[in-house]
Amino acid sequence: MNPKESFSEPFFPYHVPNTCEEVPHSMNIAIVSRKLSGRGGMETAIQTLAHTARAKDVPLMLWAMGHLENTEWLVDIPYRSAKIDRGTGHRLQLRAKLPFYIVALARMLNQSQVDTLLITDPIFAEAAYRARYLTGRRVRILSWLHFSLDKLANVSSLARADGHLAISQGIKRQLQALNISRPIHVIHNPLPFAFNPPKPQHPAPGRLLYVGRLSNHQKRLDLLFQALSQIDGVWTLDIAGDGPDLAWLRDRANQLGINDRIAFRGWQSDPWSICQPSALVLTSDFEGFPMVLVEALARGIPVVATNCPTGPEDIVENHKNGLLAEPGSVTAIRDAVQMALDPEWPWEWTAQDIQKNTLTHYNASRVFDKMSEAIVSIPER
After folding, report:
1. Which residues form the Glycosyl transferase family domain (predicted)?
2. Which residues contact 202 (CB under 8 A, 6 or more apart)?
3. pTM (two decimals)
4. I want to staple 138 with a disulfide (CB 3.0 to 4.6 A). Which of 5, 53, 320, 380 is the partner?
5. Are residues 103 and 180 located together in one domain of the fold?
6. Alpha carbons 181 and 343: distance in angstroms, whole number
């Protein structure tokens, strides 16, 4: 099945008739999401989950709540899209879209054999709960959030979910702080399916790499630049990525007198081909589960990251595969980067050990099996 359908419902029905005869299956998954550009971390996680599910003969599709401007990344993933804003004459606020989400999900439920909904936004927990009531379908609703909860709206709606798949320990703590009574399982995002990176090469001395969006509100490259301006010795920084703050960051590098050591390389389809750096750096104030750290470690590249509330603590083992620095602290970032630049290899694990341990822990098949166990442990309702 590879439907590429869209519809818009300008009304809220009191009953949605069931037009699809249910066929029992051990697990039939739909991922419910919105605002998908095709280039973000959540899209990568969806792709990996879909490819692994297909290899294991588990039905899985994407239900996009909103227009998909880019569908190239979905070339081999079954999907449907509900163009929620179409025909309304204006863009609706998120909470105002709830009736439209309910209608769309009810229609999709009745036209499918799905028994598991993985929702990536709190508002969809409420919408799915009401759609389940309208249709009378037996379906489990699980949250699968990819952002820190303090950056999301409508988090109280998560109480409607039957369970939660937390991608990091930090998100689990945030869910527990909401007094969530349903089961919470920590399932880290995996590496891409059939991922097979080359063996680690000898790192280029003094070379650092940043891979990600140039959005300083989150990524805090200004702190990294300040820290680098205080580093002793020779260093260079390659930046692979683009975003709204590119011009501002160029100016900031000029002001600090380090512009000749920083190469802005733009968005790269394969940023890892730039070099084998001494370390990858990530100085964010917040993340969900930063896969760029995992992708670096899977190539035997140590990492320096700020220990923001969700994500890095699950990935970085201090002094073994990298270092965690205090968020917002230029001094802590400087000291961690200075250590990472030590030409004598300051880490307890070799590059080969870093790669091996990462490939084992974040193997897509292994993670999918763990996720499947968590899902089927939560009954359909």
Report:
1. 207-342
2. 276
3. 0.88
4. 380
5. yes
6. 50
Give SS3 for 142: strand
Residue 196: alpha-carbon gap to chain centroid: 20
Residue type, 344: E
Q: Pick from 281, 200, 198: which is nearest to 238 by CA?
A: 281
Q: Which amino acid is at 202?
A: H
Q: Are residues 75 and 165 in the same domain?
A: yes
| Cα–Cα distance measured from residue 301 to residue 312, given in angstroms and rounded to the nearest whole number | 15
210, 218, 248, 329 from 215: Cα distances, Å: 13, 6, 10, 18
> Token pair for residue 231?
């580093």
**pLDDT tens, position by position, 122-163:** 999 999 999 999 999 999 999 999 999 998 999 999 999 999
Q: Is 175 a domain residue?
A: yes
Rounded to whole angstroms, how far apart are CA atoms 196 and 199? Answer: 9
Query: Based on the domain organization, do 81 and 167 belong to the same domain?
Result: yes
Residue 352 falls inside a structural domain? yes
In this prediction, residue 334 has a pLDDT band, given cuts at 50, 70 and 90, of very high
Q: Which residue type does 79 have?
A: Y
Strand partners, 117: 30, 141
Domain coverage including residue 108:
4-190+363-376
pLDDT tens column, 72-82: 999 999 999 99
In angstroms, the CA 306 to CA 336 distance is 10
- Structure tokens of 222? 């200004």
Residue type, 349: W
Q: Phi, psi (5° rounding) for residue 282? A: -150, 115
Residues 21, 53, single domain; the answer is: yes
CA atoms lying within 13 Å on the CB side of residue 271: 24
**Could you tell me the CA-to-CA distances from 319 to 242, 287, 308 in Å, in that order?**
30, 22, 18
What is d(CA 131, CA 68) in angstroms, rounded to the nearest whole number?
Answer: 22
329 shares its domain with 372: no
Q: How far apart are CA 325 and CA 202, in angstroms?
A: 25
Q: Decide if pLDDT at 27 tops 80.
A: yes
Encode burial over 270-301: b for 16+ CB neighbours within 10 A, e otherwise: ebbebbbbbbbbbbbbbbbbbbbbbbbbbbbb
